[in-house]
Amino acid sequence: MLLFGLSVFVLFCLSAWAAPGNNTEEAGSPFLHFLTRYGRRYSPGSLEFQKREHFFQESIRRHEYLNSPVLAPYENNSAIYGINRFSDLSPEEFKAIYLQSKAVELPKYVTTSAKEAILPARFDWRDKNLVTPVRNQLSCGGCWAFSIVGGIESAYAINENLLEELSVQQVIDCSYEDNGCNGGSTINALHWLNKTRVKLVRASEYEFKAQTGICHYFPSSDFGVSIRDYKAYNFSDIEEEMMTQLINLGPLAATVDAVSWQDYLGGIIQYHCSSGEANHAVLITGFDRTGDIPYWIVKNSWGSTWGIDGYVHIKIGQNVCGIADTVSAARV
To answer: Where is the Cathepsin propeptide inhibitor domain (predicted)?
Structure first.
């Protein structure tokens, strides 16, 4: 009931913001508030200012569409869409900057045990302090590297009881099967790591630059984490088995359709993943089946101010956003 009220409030506000006459000349302009909140520096009256204001108004109309009860009937914990730091980007710009992961067709997972595993109602590797903090990929299309490195960090912590932040920049610069900040594949990155046995150094030693650079090498005596193998499967139609693998292997990297995530504020995504292709890589850290709608707990790489402290919740059971199609986990 509370979330229903929140949905109505969001729709009311969006309608008011999009109403005729609400332009930047008026006091309390939503666009001016947006510029102040997110530190944008567009010169008033310039073509850039006008373009960004147009995209902002388009985003408000898009939010009305996404929050429409016709498209997504009000249910407990339904996702809410609204103004965030991406609201002055066109959908094309957003996709070009942030959605740069490529999907790889994987074999279907085949269950080897006749005995069905007993799953807990809720499980999250964060509860065991085995997941590093949310990072921000900025304008670098390296989500594929953030996803894989996050999984390796947790796998190492599970084995060694020591949580280390490892270098994403090292993977961006050195994974020759990928294109750095211009995009890549979680599976290609795992294949490169497994083939070369490269040791990932600490993030503090090889800092993130938000652009592709020259690959740096480190002496074998230095600290580093290498992988010894990886698993990669398609779990569509068998998401319960995917939960079992998450518990057994650690957080799972996944490639998803995240076009609608440009406007995500919170709640459980159940609809609107409609681009028809996977384009973004994330890390699944857990699941929650205690409520009416079971959901995956998914770590993103757009900073902690996006979504639910940097996370998104996605409904379990219908392969929403293609979350079960391209799933992998490293073994260290």
So the answer is: 31-94
